[in-house]
Structures are given as C-alpha cells and as structure tokens.
Amino acid sequence: MPQRFWESINKQVSKWSKLFLARKYLRFYPPSFVLRNPILEGVQASFRNGQQIAVIVFNISNLQNLIEQFGISHCKQYQLFVRQALQDSVVKVFPNQNILSLHNYSSNGIALIVQFPESKKGFIDLEISINDIMSKLDILHHHSNIDMPVQLNTGYMFIEEIEASAEDAIDRAYRQADAMAEKRIHSKYNELVFEMTRIIKNKDVELLAQPIIDVSSNQIKAWEILSRGPKGTSLESPLQLFSVARQTNRLFNLEMIVLEQAFEQIIKTGCPHLVFINLTPISLGNPEILKSMKKLLTKYRQVDPYKIILEITERDSIQGYKHFVENIQSLRSMGFRIAVDDTGAGYASLHTISEVLPDIIKIDRSVIQNIDTCTVKESMLKGLLLIAKETGSIVVAEGIEKEGEASVLSRNNVDLAQGYFYAKPDALPSMVSSF
After folding, report:
1. From which residue to which does the signal peptide run (predicted)?
2. What is the rounded average pLDDT of the residues 293-300?
C-alpha cells in the first residue's frame, strides 16, 4: 500500500479516537447541540419578571364541514389564511413584545401565548381582549373562495407557575383552554362551573395550617392557612381550585369562604397565635370586600382582627385595581395587618411593597433554597432585609427545608421562618394541640 494511504488512515483513526477518550478530554468531541424552545424560554422569563402569561385557543368548530364541502387541500390553505388573519388581529390588540407565540395547536386549533400586561385586571380584561380580536376577524366571513363562514370557538387559561416544571404548567393551560373553547360542544366547562358553585355553596373546602417559627427562640409565632378542594376530585389541588375559580368568575366568593372557615377554626381551636390568610389582589380590590369583612367580624366576634394577617399573593399585579389601596387602608383601620407574599420572586411584590408598606414581608422560597451554599442568594437576602428595615416590616422566610438554610437566617437576624424543616402543613386543630 502507498504510504500516503496509511497516513490518511492514521489521520482518520486519530480523529475518531477522540470520541472514545475519557470524559475530561471530550471538551469538543462530539460538538454539543442545544435545542432551544423559544416558547418555554419566553414563559420562564415572564415568570421571573412576575408577569402573567395566558394561552388562548381558537378552534375551527366547523372544520369537518369545510373539509367535506371543499376538500382537505383547500381547507389546509384556508387554515393558513385563518392563522394569518388571527395574527393581523392579535398585533392590533396586544403589543408585539407581549406576543410569545401564535402557532397550530391541533388539527383544528390555533394557540396564542401572550404575556398579559400588568395594567390589565386578569381574566376580565383578557376576555375583553379576546372579543376585540374576534371583532377584527370579519374578513374571515368574506373569503372569496369559501362561501361557508368559519366558526371559531375560543377558550383561555392563565399559565400558573407550579413546582413540577414550566412545561407541565404550559401543557395544563393548553388543555384547560381547549376545554373552554369546546364548551359549546362538550360539557366539561359547564361541569367545572357547576362544581365550583357547589363547593362555594356547601363551603366544601379543607383547611390546613403550617407553623411560622420565631428564628431566635424556635417557638411558634403564627400559622399560615392553606386550602384544598374536595378530596379525590380534580379540584383538590389548590392550583386547580383557584385557577378554575378565577376563570369561572368565582374567585372572590371562594376566598371569602376560606376566610370564614379560617375564622371558625380559630374559634374552635382557641388558637392563641397570629394567623396568615392568603388573598389575591383581585379580591382585595373588590369593592364588596369591606362589607364582607365587616359581616364576618360581626358573626365571629371572638376573632381579633389584629391577629389576622391578610397575605397579598404575587400572582397578580396591584396595578389597575381601582379600590385596592383604599381597601387596604380601610382593612387596616379595622385592625387587620398586611403581608406581601413571594418577595424576591419577581417585580410585582417589590412594587406592592412600595405601594402598601406592609407590616410583614415574606421572602420567597426561590431566594432561600440552598442559600447556605450560595453567597449571591445571601446577598439578596441582606438586600431584602434592608428594604424591610426601611418599611418597618417584619420578615418571614418561606420554604426552609434544611438546617443549613435555617442557620443562614439565624446569622442574618431574620425574624420568622416556615417550611418543612420545622413542620409540614396539617389540620389546624391537630397542629395547635400538638405544639
């Protein structure tokens, strides 16, 4: 064999042998390829910024009739036309930077994923925006090649950040939005409305409690009330329960039921500590809340409002709620104290702190997790403690799961803490009696 041939073989062997070297030598062999998911990245970025993200589904309900009359090939072209018309309408309603994606969702569905502006009021304004999009689609009824007008069913769901993954949250929102879009054909949505109405009417909500510990003395200082839907149902999960309540316009009613049940448990157990109860900005901005709270205090006179901490969740920005600030002032005059939840997880909580000047600031689990091994997170904690000092707020650190995290809180003189390291949530009567 010619020497040039063997030299060529040696070069090839040398090249490919790198693929079988120890891992530490494989820095560039083989090259790494990362498949990006722009939708997932956009949703995760929105979560980090404390933004709401909604999935809106547009289903062509008469697609089968269109196929039978005009054929599959013609209808595929028509679907492209529908998508383009939707895109033109969407950009007239939403700022371009807020649109994360407009894509085919199923054989007859098109999905829009949009970052909902903080100035809007959640689902009410989202429905207004959807109606605005639909009103700009008159062109679909005058398509020159198809005499039969397209029929679009719409549904939506906000993507809720959950512990499992952002992918799970997106998938769940897709499925729930699709169920809403098909409500004229299927009964799933109506069943959810009926079940939520039944839960509120029968006050079918289970309350759990988790202790909040004084870091310096390791003694119980307060309890946070956590709620669950009916056991064994799809609404047992608090994420599902409150998401469906919100979409069916029953969130305020549900949160008032949770408040009433909590008051009953406080009296029943003779709980001597402070009690934290979550309320969304939607409910706190509702003009009916003051009347409801006065009614509860009249009915449960043994409950001292000064021992009740109304905890503002961060899922909604307070911007745009006309009665929010004045309601907070009135609730304070009634004796209630105010806490801001999830501080450090996004912009919304910091904005709420500056507007409300809360009595208590709760630091989100994302700041606390592995803080004992991350100096940057400890610096973040110190910064939040400075904010709390400026506003005169007590600090509660959430989600403590190990001793190292608790020790960081202690050396930084954090006031209060809660998490599985201290105790898991349980029924309030058994928790109070066991501590």
Report:
1. none
2. 96
Taken as a whole, the chain contains a residue count of 435
For residue range 26-81, list pLDDT tens digits in order: 344 444 444 567 888 888 888 777 777 888 888 877 666 666 666 666 667 767 77
Q: What are the tokens at 292?
A: 């409801």
pLDDT beyond 50 at 385: yes
Fold exhibited by the domain 190-434: TIM Barrel (3.20.20)
Count other C-beta atoms under 10 Å from residue 109's C-beta: 23
Ramachandran assignment for 417, one of left (phi > 0), alpha (psi -120 to 50 degrees), beta (any other): beta
Please state, in angstroms and rounded to a whole number, the distance separating the CA atoms of residues 100 and 54.
10
Of residues 364, 348, 349, the one with CA closest to residue 118:
348
CA distances from 318 to 121, 313, 355 (A): 9, 10, 9
What are the residue ranges of helices labelled H in 56-161? Answer: 63-70, 72-93, 123-135
Domain limits, the chain = 38-186, 190-434
Task: Decide: 285 and 312 in contact? Cβ < 8 Å.
Answer: no
Q: How far is CA 221 from CA 211, 335, 418, in A?
A: 8, 18, 10
CB 154 within 8 A of CB 110: no
Cα distance between residue 229 and residue 203, in whole Å: 10
Are 193 and 186 a contacting pair, CB within 8 Å?
Answer: no
Pair 78, 63: CB distance under 8 Å: no
Report the interhelical angle of 72-93 vs 63-70 (nearest 10°).
140
Mode of pairing for the β-strands spanning 337-343 and 360-363:
parallel
**Is the pTM above the cut of 0.70?**
no
What would the CATH number be for the domain defined by 38-186?
3.30.70.270
Specify whether the CB–CB gap between 282 and 316 falls below 8 A.
Answer: yes
* Collapsed DSSP state (helix, strand, coil) of residue 209: strand
Determine contact, residues 248/193, Cβ cutoff 8 Å.
yes
Asked if 432 and 271 touch (Cβ cutoff 8 Å), the reply is yes
Task: Map residue 425 onto helix, strand or coil.
Answer: coil
